[in-house]
Amino acid sequence: xxxxxxxxxxxxxxxxxxxxxxxxxxxxxxxxxxxxxxxxxxxxxxxxxxxxxxxxxxxxxxxxxxxxxxxxxxxxxxxxxxxxxxxxxxxxxxxxxxxxxxxxxxxxxxxxxxxxxxxxxxxxxxxxxxxxxxxxxxxxxxxxxxxxxxxxxxxxxxxxxxxxxxxxxxxxxxxxxxxxxxxxxxxxxxxxxxxxxxxxxxxxxxxxxxxxxxxxxxxxxxxx
Length: 224
Ligand SMILES: CC(C)(COP(=O)(O)OP(=O)(O)OC[C@H]1O[C@@H](n2cnc3c(N)ncnc32)[C@H](O)[C@@H]1OP(=O)(O)O)[C@@H](O)C(=O)NCCC(=O)NCCS
Known about the structure:
The chain is α+β, with helices and mostly antiparallel strands. The chain is 47% helix and 23% strand.
């Protein structure tokens, strides 16, 4: 990994962390929109709309206009869903990282720095529903620094911290559209343990599935 240092979060990193997270999440809007277009319900609504307008108006213009409007509104719904998630995350833990992650010794937040610039983030907290696990959160690497092993190193830092703190496993959640992240976790030995629908109306229409992954530290030493 080229000249990248992983260190604990400091308060002066706050804005850069929020910016990286916002960019990292927003980049999933196009793939989520494509995911929406692949859903049978979306295709059915679009087809019924076009056919109904075509037969009732006997013109091509109205169905084309309606289909364009439908697609634009669908894309806006995806943007809205991501913006809401970003805002909620910033209001929740990312709005006060020191308070959320650095007050208890089992939690932590790290950043990856390259030439004085923040290029990656990751945090961990005790998993709410699994007392033996720490939850890996907010993994993100700046686009310009991808493919250099930074995420791998950040995950290894979390695994090391988890083992050191006496927890048996690392747990995390990712989504159906975060395919790079899925490959990363599977490559590191994480096992998919659960699939469930993301909360919210738009997410359910979108069939936006979340995946839970787990790395058992007793049996898997790959991330050492
Ligand atoms: C997922 C993410 C963190 C990966 O960061 P990265 O620094 O590029 O990852 P690394 O260079 O450490 O790659 C490690 C492994 O991940 C997998 N991987 C990462 N990006 C990949 C891609 N584009 N295609 C295929 N595999 C990929 C590979 O297995 C890779 O190992 P290899 O290089 O030995 O093949 C980054 O793409 C990102 O920040 N995405 C946006 C935010 C996000 O979705 N975060 C996940 C939250 S759950």
